[in-house]
Amino acid sequence: MATIPEAPVAVSFRGVERHYGQVHAVDGVDLDIAPGEFFAMLGPSGSGKTTCLRLIAGFEQPTAGRIRIFGEEVEGVPAYRRPVNTVFQDYALFPHMNVLDNVCYGLRIRGMARGEREKLGRDALGLVKLSRMEARKPGQLSGGQRQRVALARALVLRPKVLLLDEPLGALDLKLREEMQGELKSLHKTIGLTFVFVTHDQGEALSMADRVAVFNNGRIVQVGAPEDIYERPRVRFVADFVGGSNIVEPDLVRAWTGKAGVASLRPEKIAVVPNDAESRAGAIEVDGTVAQILYQGPVKRIELATAGSVLVAAIPATAGPPLSEGDRVRAVFAASALHIMEGQ
Amino acid sequence: MRDGQRAPVGLKIAAGAGLAFIHVPLLFILLYAFTSEDRSYQFPPPGLTLKWFAVAWGRQDIFDALGLSVAVATLSTAAALVLGTFAAAALARTRFFGREAISLLLILPIALPGIVTGISLRAAFDIADIPYSFWTIVLGHATFCIVVVYNNAVARFRRLSPSLVEASMDLGADGFQTFRHVVLPNIATALLAGGMLAFALSFDEVIVTTFTAGQQTTLPIWMLSELVRPRQRPVTNVVAVIVIALTFLPILAAYYLTRNGEAVAGGGK
Amino acid sequence: MTAAVFDIDAPRDGLLRRVSDVLLARRGFYLLLLLLPPLLWLGVVYLGSLFALLAESLFSIDDFSGVIIRQPTLATFAQLLQPANFDVIVRTIAIATTVTILAVIVAFPIAYYAARYARGRMKAAFYLLVMMPLWSSYLVKIYAWKLLLAKEGAIGWTMNEAGAGSLLDAVLALPVIGGPSLSTSYIGMVLVFLYLWIPFMVLPVQAALERVPVSLIEASGDLGAAPGQTFRTVILPLALPGVVAGAIFTFSLTLGDYIVPEIVGPSSLILGQVVYIQQGTAGNIPLAAAFAVVPIVIMGFLLTVAKRIGAFDAL
């Protein structure tokens, strides 16, 4: 088994493909995840992100390409031989065992004595703040509690990489935000490499050190959350992450003289009355208010303009109240238009 | 027609009549176990007595037949459990060429009339020159018991979440350990139920048995010969009553073990 | 648990573990291993003997010496068309059909009530009440009916006491299906078959009815259908696979039975008896096999229909 002598990479993909007959679930993925990173794989359903996670875990084998975990090739290595553990989307807790036995399961398989493994199990439960529940069965726990048990069960084995498959999908909003914070602090405490899959871009942006955006079986962009958000590389990323205005090349040329399609984030657009003073250096576009959506902290204003429909997000309390049909002006800096690759 | 309502009166009467139709004859069997007249089946019976129970206790041929039936049923059930579980494990969640054909093959021994199965097996034993013995009976019974176990097992396998198996492997357990620690505990009750049904099926079977038995006498065969050339008629009824009592418990147990299905119309509690 | 410390040993590597590696890698091999024992058993033992039997039907028997001539011929099948033999086949199919139809009529209310209105303990009670007779001895059930149906038996006695003796005589005087007493008439035989096979009809129908989600029925009512309409257009079609599954059982069991007609019913033979006699005392295996092919063909047809409408899950 070849060991790469360079700086250790936790997980590396080279040209990985996974086909199911005609369907290319994963269609040529290259990836390097650094040790200790909190790495997010983001994308819509069917984009290949979950398949990639399963390829790391060992539940699937790639049709082509190579995967290395901490330098070791894992071709043909089954899941139970990999130093990787998974927190499943449906938690997959064993219904016939209580919480403590669930958590200690992996240790028991390794032949650890009962006393020793229960001590480690209790430590893990303490880490996820579920110590009082050790005698309960999974059926008696709430969704959030089950998720913590699944976490403890994976963590107790001290895997080299912890995989999380849409871990917060089944939780309601409040619980989800709470768990996001907890996962982040857990990660900082333990220092393991976390790789998680999600279709919720807000989650990816708030928790991850780096995000890989997937579409159609390929990685479209990898970078820090701020990079992905402020500087989307292609149309898909701009649209999927944060829902941007996509400004077609003809308008871009009209407004700035540059070539290419651009992304314009809604919060970078100010909405002023039609007859306000012109500002130097800013791009101004006249239009009519088509729809107003109140969203608590912001209002999303849909503006019908000559060339296109623009969506602006303004603080709910800013400026005079607007109503549908008002003639207004959208104002934004030229630098707010981020030129992207491709059409 | 909402479920909260009470059932229409006509339905209740029809259902009740149907159930009565099913059970009244059984009561007669019970009644005739006590009749004092042992030569004809007069109704009403001339007198009632308990002596036939004592007589049955004393007859060695009954015990021999009972023992043989129990032994055959046990072994057939064991074979059916193994083979049925294997088949269920293979067919529950996979798709491959020939899968439907195999499902059909499993059902065939029960779907085709018993006499066909009986004659086929007899012809096969003749050709292969296998002497009729205890083992030929077991072979015959196991063949149609497989599907009973298979049905129960496959239903349970389908309800077993695949992520449980993946989770177990993820945590370090190989295929065999996963089966032992995770799969088996979750299908155990279905296997138990299937096993009990198979046992009861084998215990009562007579048609295929007459073809595969040679000189052996299982309990049903004993009963058949008693009915054709009766020695003491009410004793047959006594044995019947005992058999009913004996098979009552496993059937009830099998029901309780498998009843927790998904919520469907009328299926919930 | 601070920095990641990989000090927990991996599980020990044993023989079973390595076998597991192989089985997981070669999924097809694993499936084959699982399927081989049951397939060997069923495929070789059962199918093999079935084909052996069918092969016999293509042979013929020398009438004088009784020796089986192993030359393929359709002569034995042609014998099936002789009036006496053909009668047997038609008779048996008629009986099986009657029994099946009656079974549906009797079983449906029971199944319907149990599926839709029984809850908890009642449901368990229903299940028991239906299943128990199933597992009481088949033979004794037949004999119980013989007693009931006999001239001096319970039914005759009850009807006489109730003053309905003449009604019984009128029924027995019906052509074809009547007879000297209930226990030697077709009516009696059909009653016994019906009695024996009812649980086989109740269970699949009940299972099928239970699988109808409440939401469908509610939706039907919501869209304006009267209860009777809902029953006809929503429930009945969904229950059909269960009925077909039950019919497969009742048909199959009736076509092959040779014990019931020996004990109850007129002296004319039905299919099962003919097969039994031919392969036994008459030693005419080819003819027995030819007769046995008839139920196989009929069941094959029924099974195909069942598969088409998805009744396989209900079996």
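The mean pLDDT of chain A is 90.
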